[in-house]
Amino acid sequence: MNMGLLRVVAGLVLVCCLVAPLLPLGLWSVARGWFFPQVLPATWTLEPWARAFAPRSEIPGALLTTTTVALASAGLALALGIPAGRALGLYKFRGKALVELALLAPVIVPGIAVGLGIHGVFLRLGLTNSMAGVILVHLVPTLPYVVFVMSGVFANYDAEAEAQARSLGARPMQVLWHVMLPAIAPGVMVAGLFAFLVSWSQYILTLTIGGGRVVTLPLLLYAQAGAGRNDQAGVLAMLSLAPGLVILALTARQLTGRGLALGGGAR
Amino acid sequence: MAGSRTSATEVLGRGHPWLSLAPALCVIAVLFGGGLVLGLAGSFAERGGGWSLDAWAQVLSEGRVWRSLGLSLWIAGASTALSCGIGLGAALLLRRSFPGQGLARLLFQINLTIPHAVGALGILWLLSQSGFLARLVAGAGGIDTPADFPPLTQDRFAIGIIAHYVWKEVPFVGLILLANMQSLGDDPESAARTLGAGPFAAMRLVLLPLLMPALVRAGAIVFAFAFGAWEVPVLLGQSSPAALPVLAWQRFTSPDLAARPEAMALAMLIALVSALLIRAAFTARR
């Protein structure tokens, strides 16, 4: 077999494997009573979607909760992470490696390892079982991500332009607004959108701190699948995919493989 | 030059980078550091308010804990080896253009954005004994009932769990390697070819060593995640032995309050394994 054909076959296998787990999820979201040994649903229907957005459904609430938590957490991560990324990207200083390690550790240490202890911290602060607590705990995975993206952005940023603006009489806020912000805006967008996505995908930290009271989409997904409401779980799975697709479309131009891979989506 | 650099730092009104770092570091210290410290303290806590080693003694002497640790190491090791191997192969495949290359790259990127919970449920519905794959086999006349299909989820060998991680992490490893290959360019390999190396030798002796640091770091991240994630083994794993994070969560939510310190000890055990990994990955970077 020649190399070209081999590539196409291997590529085809790869594509099939990547899509395979999504097929049953998508099919359940438009199926009624799809049982073994039916390969495809006997009845195709949009009923699961109608039911998902019917008045008594929990899905709209979970959608709102997940979006609010992810927006707030990404916003906070940006507010804290842009200055930190600037410091790491622009300056060399003693202890920098240690700072990078401290900010990298939360990416690698699993959520459950710190989550149980954070639950103790938040219990004392009265933050358990609340949306505020969940927003804060999502900073553990989102903030390091923003810091690293922004430090990469600032590493390629020309701080001399700020000095020039300043020597022409610009005030600090004007320099921030008119010089720095336009230069880093694409990076801020990528960092913010992917921080949103990281928060959107969280499970165990939400469960630990939210105590089951803060119901996000991943939690509801497992609850519905566990209760045998596969059609509703299928709808939830499709809804959970949506922001990732939108964000990919929005950032297609800014992204290199590395920037995206760093996000790792769900972690 | 020195003067202009000073004024650049003055623009933010912050002469020292620590001031810009402080808010982020404080948040990480309180949440992450505080979580670790309280977890550690909790593992030595006694119900009356004193300190004891009981939880650690209990946890470390329990056969079930060691079986769970072994299972989690197996899951993480197998997932990492397969993800790195297949990810490398996929990156080598996708760096040359062929029909379908764009689609595969796009799917890689989409795959990265999918929450683990969604992927795990998809794997369950794909591989379980009444799942999509079993139905395809039944349709082809291979089996009659779901019980005839081999158990690939909630099975002894954690095949479903490993399948999920490989599905999710091959694109992660692949995209990191593709980005590295892109920045390396074709020059190192073509130089080797000019000097008489065959295509395979050029790849093995020149390209692979150049990619190794990135592969090791990506592998460490995959290992730590596959070792410590909860939502995947809780759905795709068998109940006994359960993966270590699942066991920790069971103890944490147990109505028996004496189990709390044990849960904390298990959480610390998970943190310890990932700390060793961070160390290894950081050493590899230098």
TrEMBL record, chain A:
Q: Where, subcellularly, is it found? A: Cell inner membrane; Cell membrane
Q: How does it sit in the membrane?
A: Multi-pass membrane protein
Q: Which residues form the ABC transmembrane type-1 domain?
A: 63-251
Q: Which residues form a coiled coil?
A: none
Biological processes per GO annotation: transmembrane transport
GO cellular-component terms in the record? plasma membrane
UniProt-recorded name of the protein = Putative spermidine/putrescine transport system permease protein
Claim: Calcium is one of the keywords in the record: no
Where does this protein chiefly localize?
membrane
Keywords attached to this Swiss-Prot or TrEMBL record, sorted alphabetically, are:
Cell inner membrane, Cell membrane, Membrane, Transmembrane, Transmembrane helix, Transport
Q: Which organism is it from?
A: Limimaricola pyoseonensis
Q: Which family does it belong to?
A: Belongs to the binding-protein-dependent transport system permease family.
Q: What superkingdom does the record give? A: Bacteria
Q: Where are the transmembrane segments?
A: 59-80, 101-123, 135-155, 175-197, 203-223, 235-252
Q: Does the keyword tRNA processing apply?
A: no
From TrEMBL, chain B:
- Where is the chain membrane-spanning? 21-45, 65-94, 106-127, 157-180, 201-230, 263-282
Q: Has UniProt tagged this entry with the keyword Cell membrane?
A: yes
Matching PROSITE patterns, A to Z?
Answer: ABC_TM1
Kindly list the GO CC terms recorded for this protein.
plasma membrane
> Pfam families from the entry?
BPD_transp_1 (PF00528)
Membrane topology designation? Multi-pass membrane protein
Where in or outside the cell? Cell inner membrane; Cell membrane
Query: Signal peptide: which range, if any?
Result: none
InterPro entries the record matches = MetI-like (IPR000515), MetI-like_sf (IPR035906)
Q: What is this protein called?
A: Putative spermidine/putrescine transport system permease protein
What biological-process terms (Gene Ontology) are attached?
Answer: transmembrane transport
**Domain ABC transmembrane type-1, first and last residues per copy:** 69-281
Carries keyword Ribonucleoprotein? no
Which key words tag this protein in UniProt?
Answer: Cell inner membrane, Cell membrane, Membrane, Transmembrane, Transmembrane helix, Transport
What's the chief localization of this chain? membrane
Identify its protein family. Answer: Belongs to the binding-protein-dependent transport system permease family.
